[in-house]
Specification:
Elements: E1 4-10, E2 26-32, H1 45-62, H2 69-87, H3 94-101, H4 109-126, H5 135-146, H6 181-195, H7 202-216, H8 223-237, H9 248-254, H10 256-267, H11 271-306, H12 315-322, E3 328-329, H13 331-338, H14 342-354, E4 358-361, E5 369-372, H15 373-383
Antiparallel strand pairs: 1-2, 3-5, 4-5
Length: 389
């Protein structure tokens, strides 16, 4: 589905704060992709097999029985969101992100970006079963992503030319220049029409939606993270990932160069090359997630064994269930998550601390905070893309 390039002139601007060489007029080409509404490309049996394999792996991940669905689902959604930020060069230690997400540490700009990415992904998934994908809904995801640190552009479709690579002053010499701003509205309308179709396979549709969104690049910033959230909107709406998001961004972050080459191939009309890369990444992500959840559940089984002498009505059993969603916690967090009183939450924490599951951080006498070291180690492993042993 090739598009076409359009030549344009970047105007001379003697008042620009740019270096003199970037103030003068220059020519560039922006790319206008073909529409995707109604698209249902066919491919050879080998690629069709890779797509089917990826869909089977995601379906298997989502069909596993679970004791406590919501905490484990949150664990994978969080992992995907953090990895999506990593693709954009936003890195922070797992422990620091856990503290920031629990609102137990002051946010740095990077941590603010990462926590906002988690919020945006959660919003995207929560709304994935709405009647239809809309431009306004996509703008809401972007708003959740950008409002904390970039409120001026949060949820706003761009009205200026943007570009990728090159310099900060002109699109001349950029690696890629998306469509001119006056074309964005029509291209987004075409994209949401395609999002609401059901003619192609779910994985193929998710891959096409993501690549087309990145090509349109409709926002001034935050397009990558918003576009990767749309992958999971499609997979959830199409009934493939009804419970767990496969952490595809973990794989994309590890192979960023291959990811960028795949998007470039899509823009060059080689849709098959993009779909092959995306399908392979999705299969690997689903396998990673399955091993990840198994490792977390094995740890939970060990924790239950360690406190087996406690009464079955103790809050500690609920704490073990919800702990994957709260690797860093305090008494109010445990009380809210388990729906128990503060004294019951405090007793559950004490039992888990005695069992060696939770460790007290710092030496404060008040407002104490604990962390689950085993969970943080697993989070570090999976966010690095390595299978737990």
């Amino acid at each position: 589905m090739p598009g076409h390039f359009v030549s344009a002139v970047w105007a001379w601007d003697p008042s620009s704060p740019a270096p003199p060489r970037h103030r003068r007029a220059c020519t560039y080409e922006y790319f206008v992709p073909a529409g995707v509404a109604g698209a249902n490309p066919t491919f050879d049996s080998q690629l069709a097999g890779l797509v089917a394999e990826a869909e089977h792996a995601i379906a298997a991940l989502n069909s596993r029985p679970d004791r406590a669905l919501a905490p484990l689902a949150r664990l994978l959604l969080r992992t995907e969101s953090i990895a999506s930020s990593k693709v954009e060069g936003l890195h922070a230690p797992v422990r620091a992100v856990a503290f920031a997400e629990a609102e137990l540490r002051r946010l740095t700009p990077t941590l603010g970006e990462i926590v906002s990415s988690i919020d945006a992904m959660q919003l995207a998934i929560d709304r994935a079963t709405d009647d239809a994908v809309t431009v306004e809904g996509i703008a809401d995801i972007h708003r959740a992503l950008m409002m904390r640190l970039h409120p001026a552009i949060a949820g706003s479709i761009r009205d200026e030319q943007n570009w990728i690579g090159g310099n900060d002053y002109t699109p001349c010499g950029a690696e890629f220049v998306p469509p001119a701003p006056q074309l964005v509205a029509a291209l987004l309308a075409d994209l949401v029409t395609y999002c609401n179709e059901r003619d192609s396979s779910p994985l193929m549709q998710a891959a096409m939606v993501h690549a087309q969104f990145e090509t349109i690049h409709p926002f001034a910033d935050g397009n990558g993270r918003t576009g990767r959230a749309l992958v999971h909107v499609v997979l959830r709406r199409r009934g493939l990932a009804t419970r767990y998001v496969p952490p595809i961004s973990v794989i994309l972050a590890r192979r960023r160069d291959r990811y960028i080459r795949g998007l470039t191939a899509f823009r060059d009309g080689d849709v098959a090359a993009w779909l092959e890369m995306f399908a392979l990444a999705s299969t690997e992500a689903a396998s990673l997630a399955l091993h990840y959840l198994e490792a977390v559940e094995a740890a939970q089984a060990e924790w239950r064994a360690a406190v087996r002498s406690l009464r079955r009505d103790s809050a500690v059993w609920e704490l073990i269930d919800v702990l994957p969603a709260h690797p860093v916690l305090n008494v109010p967090i445990v009380a809210a998550a388990t729906r128990r009183s503060a004294p019951q939450a405090r007793a559950a924490i004490a039992a888990m601390e005695e069992a060696g599951v939770l460790s007290l951080t710092g030496s404060a006498k008040r407002n104490r905070v604990w962390e689950a070291t085993t969970l943080l180690d697993l989070l570090t492993a999976v966010e690095d893309g390595s299978l737990p042993s």
